[in-house]
Fold:
Amino acid sequence: MQKISPFLWFDTQAGEAAAFYVSLFKASKITAITHYGDAGPGPKGSVMTVGFELDGQAFTALNGGPHFTFNEAVSFVVRCDDQAEVDRFWDALTADGGQEVHCGWLKDRFGLSWQIVPAEFLAMASDPDPEKSNRVMVAMMPMKKLDLAKLRAAYEGR
Structure:
C-alpha cells in the first residue's frame, strides 16, 4: 500500500464518482466500500467511503456531506500519449455537467479539477531553448482543450 494517497470529500456522490473514474482509466478498480453504522454521521447503512485505484494510484472517496467542496487549488494531471487520449479523457470528464476551463484544465461533473495534458507538451514547454518553449506557452494560453498539432507547430516555429 502506498504511504500517501488522495482523500476526496463528496457530498453523497462518492460511489458514483469512484465508479465513473474507474471506468475511464485502465488497470483501475474499486477496492473497498465502507458503510455508516449507528454512530453516523451519515444514515446507517449508507456508503461512507469508497476505496479505489486509478491506474495503480490509490484514492479514497468520502460521503461527508455538503460542508466542503472542491476548488482549483488541487487538481489531478493526466499525462496523455496522444491527441486521441486527450480527446477521450476531455470528452468523458466534461460530459454531463463538467466544465472546460483553460490551458488543459477542466472540472468534472463532481467539481473536481483535472489537467489533461499531452506528455509531449510537457517536454516542449520545458525545452532548454527559450524561444521554442515560449512559442509553445504562447500557443497554449488561449486553448481550453490542448491541441497537440497546434502546439507542435508553435514549437517548430511554423
User: Anything to note?
Assistant: Residues 1-69 form a domain with the Signal recognition particle alu RNA binding heterodimer, srp9/1 fold (CATH 3.30.720.100).
